[in-house]
């Protein structure tokens, strides 16, 4: 069996599982973000009045998509969620002062290898970087977990993506995963799991591994996986106060498909509008004038991302007429970036810093774009209308490409 | 029996096209329905009639986990979605809301074609009289459909 299957087998009380089987598994952690008041509505609609969640210690609420609240409606949603946590004795409420759920949960030490983590967010595949089985569901699905602590799963086939070679300096995990998406397409892993292996992956720091696993969902993956190693343990052991099991994939496990990517020649790439698999080399983007650059989110708002941008922009000014919005992924990231001077460097270059959270990634607030505007963004999606107007364009790229694009006011990936 | 005319869309119709992110804070289902398919077809919500059927290519509903993407279709009257494949979170959400989601890989339906879907016999009758069989749902999914969605299904278990 694959390590991911072993997790599902363990959680569903079976000796083994196989692809396509439907199992009902115990959930270790259920996370609700602030998009989905529907979770609470469905919970009370299904359960009796006064119904309690199955285990308040295994539930967390994180306010990130609408944080701090941009509208009265969003404020009302937050208020009702706070009341729910209070009524239900849910201690793990990460309010508006924390950040993006996929950064906040690992930082808080509640993500560990071998766990089954379900959240109301498609990018929950991120936690495969820690050897967890992480997957996203909709609001009412999550409500059924709050009622019974269980969820049904179809055991996924597993695709292996082996990444070999040696990355050129300045090429980031975002470039790697975009390259893979461009080659395989955005429906390459629908219903399936994706495991990343190989020397390039082994050499990546945790924040970069999280980017690979995060964007596995952009090819349709149910979950993602990187085998925990010394890098993982170093991160986990500093933060996690929970027993955990690292499951090993059997040597005779048959992958559904195996792909190999040699990334030695990879250069900076971007997903041009409006599909995440519409990937081109940045130098082939043509002369595209940029109105806004956004550095942040669960794929580009960590310390290493902000550091990368600060190094590029140190002592320089962003181009006239360009807005550079930088949103650290969490309070911890922001404080670290402040201590190291990166925030000051970026502000000196002309950046606008906003409070930790998802920012304009989903077009809610803090930098929504209008018709005719172009944004280079480190976020994971460039869908039509994603960041605001359906007549705007989003180029998804690495923090380095984003920084250069802010510097020159056009889509570029290096010194001009 | 589900009877209606088709609205045809392409591959990789993502959740921002089905339900733009700027309306995510809405929680009233009728208000949500007003924005169905707005990102790709702003006239859809006005034109769709009860029972109408969305037909699409591969990976329908890719992107975010937003349940709004199903709620908007269901509440605007869509009777079923037929696609070559579905993104998994959208698929689960649809089952939960008892919106039939049917995988048909090898048929290119036309726009504005009248279809009849027989869930019990797992078949689709086309305007030209031909019948297309689809794979019946697994038992656990069928139970949820038969209960009218996951809310009545769990309500019965917890009453």
UniProtKB/TrEMBL annotation, chain B:
Q: According to its UniProt record, in which pathway does this protein act? A: Amino-acid biosynthesis; L-leucine biosynthesis; L-leucine from 3-methyl-2-oxobutanoate: step 2/4
Q: Which Pfam families match?
A: Aconitase_C
Q: Which GO terms describe its molecular function?
A: 3-isopropylmalate dehydratase activity
Biological process (GO), any one:
L-leucine biosynthetic process
Please write the reaction equations for the catalytic activity of this protein. (2R,3S)-3-isopropylmalate = (2S)-2-isopropylmalate
Q: Which residues form the Aconitase A/isopropylmalate dehydratase small subunit swivel domain?
A: 38-104
Keywords (alphabetical) are:
Amino-acid biosynthesis, Branched-chain amino acid biosynthesis, Leucine biosynthesis, Lyase
Q: What EC number(s) is this enzyme filed under?
A: 4.2.1.33
Q: Does the keyword S-adenosyl-L-methionine apply?
A: no
Specify the enzyme's EC class, one word. lyase
Against PANTHER family, the record matches this protein to:
3-ISOPROPYLMALATE DEHYDRATASE SMALL SUBUNIT 1, 3-ISOPROPYLMALATE DEHYDRATASE SMALL SUBUNIT 2-RELATED-RELATED
Family of the protein in this entry: Belongs to the LeuD family. LeuD type 2 subfamily.
Q: What does this protein do?
A: Catalyzes the isomerization between 2-isopropylmalate and 3-isopropylmalate, via the formation of 2-isopropylmaleate.
Could you describe the subunit structure of this protein?
Heterodimer of LeuC and LeuD.
Q: Which NCBIfam families match?
A: LEUD_arch
Know the name of this protein? 3-isopropylmalate dehydratase small subunit
Organism lineage reads as:
Bacteria, Bacillati, Bacillota, Clostridia, Halanaerobiales
Underlying gene: leuD
